[in-house]
Amino acid sequence: MKCKVCREHAIVDIRRHNAGFCRDHFLEHVTNQVARTIKEFKMFRADERLLLAVSGGKDSLALWDILGQLGYDVTGFYLDLGIGGYSSRSKDLSVVFAGVSGIKLVVRSLNEEHGFTVPELSKLTGRVPCSGCGLNKRYEFNRAALEEGFEVLVTGHNLDDEVATLFGNVLHWNTDMLGRQMPVLTERILGEGESARVALVRKVKPLVKLTERETAAYALLRGIDYVIEECPMVEGNTQHRYKEAITMLEETSPGTKSQFYSGFLKKAADRFRSAEGAELDGGEIVACISCGAPTVIWEEGGSAEARCAFCKTKALALKRKQDPEPQRPRRRRARS
Amino acid sequence: MKCKVCREHAIVDIRRHNAGFCRDHFLEHVTNQVARTIKEFKMFRADERLLLAVSGGKDSLALWDILGQLGYDVTGFYLDLGIGGYSSRSKDLSVVFAGVSGIKLVVRSLNEEHGFTVPELSKLTGRVPCSGCGLNKRYEFNRAALEEGFEVLVTGHNLDDEVATLFGNVLHWNTDMLGRQMPVLTERILGEGESARVALVRKVKPLVKLTERETAAYALLRGIDYVIEECPMVEGNTQHRYKEAITMLEETSPGTKSQFYSGFLKKAADRFRSAEGAELDGGEIVACISCGAPTVIWEEGGSAEARCAFCKTKALALKRKQDPEPQRPRRRRARS
Fold first, then answer.
1. Would you tell me the crossing angle of helices A212-221 and A58-69 to the nearest 10 degrees?
2. Which residues of B touch A173 (CB under 8 A)?
């Protein structure tokens, strides 16, 4: 196979585009795809300051590299989740990348900030690790962006991630989530008039048109050292099974993934959005009484408690950490 | 495992219901499911005459048996598609079942009615066999129902069929098809006032809550002799690949299929339907100038030709049959 651009020997082929690329033109292709995605979805302007959530994996490090090349003002943010050696190795690689590239990296630790790690949180609350981890990340990323004065939070979700999420949301017809699954979520303001302030920063995903195979190839060809191992806590994760099922279809019909995702954005997403902002569809946004972060009051059931999900989970975890009860049997077993 | 009802030894287990059944209670369960589905979706009344599309396979023969047991006035309709030994074997089994049960069966032959078989049609028009076959069946089923004076056309689509179709429609976001994918499609009237007549009879699918494993078990336990072999023309059929992918997910999460389908009906289907009847969304329904069957004029492009898709395909097939041209190379090859 020859490079689509220069007809030299191709080293990467992209079946859904029916095209091959040499090293340099592949890197150019990836960078152009990201630039086009930013433009198409009006993700951010050149004068805005970006905070990029960095995990030490191929996607976030490749994106960091690409955004730098495109000339954007981007700062990395690494949140140490305390997942043993996996977390320390990914932190090291993030720090190394920042050092080599001379880019600013903000590092925070979940344990130092709040007093628990992701594995501890899961054990203390009985919550599935990936679910607790997601809650922590959403909360901490937004908090960091607000505290450090960034307008935009950038994440490295790629096409495979978005397709797996979309597939899961469609299989369960999570209509709220479908209304929110966009490459850009606009910022949300809390309060009115003089007291108005940004409560949720804008969130954008510039890698939505690239598969994980492509971001991995980009990182490899650019000599970026990233964490190859997967998080040890994802075992049996449903997201993985959705990826497998769709990848099986992609193999016989290249383009299935990108068609599924872009078709959703073009022809279906609007059908799941409410008239005024889909971000917090169905509820009123207020400040959490504990931490001030934005949370939603659902109209059902009268006495709405304006404490955010993170604060509730944190309170439960810290209570159980201080005052450990004997391990209770799981509900299902208790019934037998 | 024990029978959920009588605690005797279970011979069928249904994982998504977390239940086992003995022979008799399984048969009762299946019959009840069909009765409930008919009621839930208001498919038909006891005094309506039903025409059931019979293929000789497990689904249509099981459904025929169940509807008879439930006391409905049901007539079978077998359309001989001319697919070699497969068609003759399935016709024989349909005729045998009708004879044993003493139920009326109408048999028609595509070749006798129109001058071609499904394999010929595919060869003559270059159309994918399953696509041409579907067109023939939709056309002939509706024509037979109208000519023989039936109000309702019943088909044996099961949960797996509906889930595979839904998955395909979602992967491609075929919004028109999503708007029409209901267990009941109401009848459509052509003309107004005195000249008004039913153009498309009501179509219903009473097996949508049963998997193909369940209809096969039902047929087996009732001693119904059905065609086990698959149609020889479905090889590589995308529907099959969708079934495989979803079945993979069902194995780890029993209930995935039924949740996907029923969730669609409850939470998403309406979002894809136009205000007035989704059947022919976006077009005006008129009588075909060749055969009088209902067809759609799409507003795009000025001079709308009111000839139906079946008549167009038939005309092309018969023209080429009478006046065969040398086999033209496929378009893609011609380009190289």
1. 60
2. 260, 263-264, 266-268
Find out whether B281 and B174 touch, Cβ atoms under 8 Å.
no
* Signed CA dihedral, B6, B12, B16, B18: sign only: positive
C-beta separation of B137 from B79 below 8 A: yes
Residues of B within 8 A of A260 (CB-CB) are: 170-173
Q: Is there a contact between B249 and A241 if contact means CB atoms under 8 Å apart?
A: yes
CA distance B103 to chain A (A): 40
What 8-state DSSP symbol labels residue A9?
B
CA closest to A172 among chain B residues: B260
Backbone angles phi, psi at B49, to 5 degrees: -90, 130
pTM to 2 decimals? 0.89
Chain A contacts of B169, Cβ < 8 Å? none
Find the CB nearest A170 among B170, B241, B252: B170
Q: How far apart are CA B230 and CA B27, in angstroms?
A: 24
Inter-chain residue contact A175 with B260, CB threshold 8 Å: no
pLDDT per position as a tens digit, B108-163: 999 999 999 999 999 999 988 888 999 999 999 999 999 999 999 999 999 999 99
- Tell me the C-alpha distance between B122 and B117, whole Å: 9
Amino acid at A285: I
Q: Which of A173, A249, A263 sits opposite B245 (nearest CB)?
A: A249
Q: What is the pLDDT of residues A186-239, one digit of tens each?
A: 998 888 888 888 989 999 999 999 999 999 999 999 999 999 998 898 877 888
